[in-house]
Amino acid sequence: MDIKTENKVIRDRNYFIVNTFQVNVCLSKGRLSKISKPNNRSGLPLYSFRTYLFNTKHLIMSKNQNPEDFSDKNEQLRKENEIKKEKLSQEYGAKLSGSNKNLSPEIEGQFLDYILNFEKAYEHAEPIQLFDMIGRPEYRKSEDIPDSEIREELDNLFLLLNKHNLTVDTICEVEERELYRFITEELFLEEIDNMKVPGMFTHFTYEEFHPNHAYDIENHSIDFFRIYLDKKSTYYTTFLSKEAEAGNWHTDFRASFRAFTIRKFSITKLSFDLEKARVQFECDFTGEIENSIEKVRYSGKGKMELVNQWGFWCIDKLILPQH
User: Fold this and answer.
1) pLDDT confidence of residue 123
2) Fewer CB atoms inside 10 A, N or C side of the chain?
3) Mean pLDDT for all residues in the chain
4) What domains appear along the chain, each with residue ranges and CATH number?
5) What are the φ/ψ torsions at residue 310 (nearest 5 degrees)?
């Protein structure tokens, strides 16, 4: 994540090894959040704002080697990979996570070479308007395209962007005409990094420019409730507002129980403006009291209040039904 301020640039680069054949390099504004079930035309996983995707399906591992030679080579490759990781960390501040234990050192080395090439290209990249990068093509204005032709024009636009390793996706349903308008009237004017790295795609998500607040609030509320009642994790704190995290209401309630079992959680009403949101829900769950065989059941109506901080809907208050 590169956050540009008036006086300096704060760099924080994260690399995620999703599987053996695909690498995601995430440079995003705000919090990083993976979209679990995107409406995704490209078939690629989505991350917040602008994501650089490396398609590494062509990486090939050597075959037909003598087992002893193979073992010695693997050991040597592991040492070389550690040197590459150290170089990435020290020189570029890179953080590598999501390591795959089944990933061969040969494939991992090729992955690290990709990252090194990306960092070198990124270091010297100059900004360029996206429209200029794709050759300033002729295109029809959205209002001049009949409904019967808008899908074809949009598909042609996707093909053109794909030729320049650019992809656009949506999380929620967006009308084809609106998506066409967004690309030609907004995205074309965006400045991007003018760099070419083999296998690299620059990915944009519509909702990062036009947030779907209702979708975000609903999903953040559902995820928070589920994770909050999971005693094996404290990840729920990442959903809290700054003020809520400083309080103790969320820790005191959880500390009274050793485990929870959720039977039901459903949102019944949602309202919001650009700063605050209110969620009403119905739930049914049981808590097993710490150091006891006793269980307490909570069933009925509850409320959540959320605030928009850092461009992210954060849980500010939780009111559970009485037991």
Assistant:
1) 77
2) C
3) 80
4) 1-210 (no CATH), 213-319 (3.10.450.100)
5) 60, 25
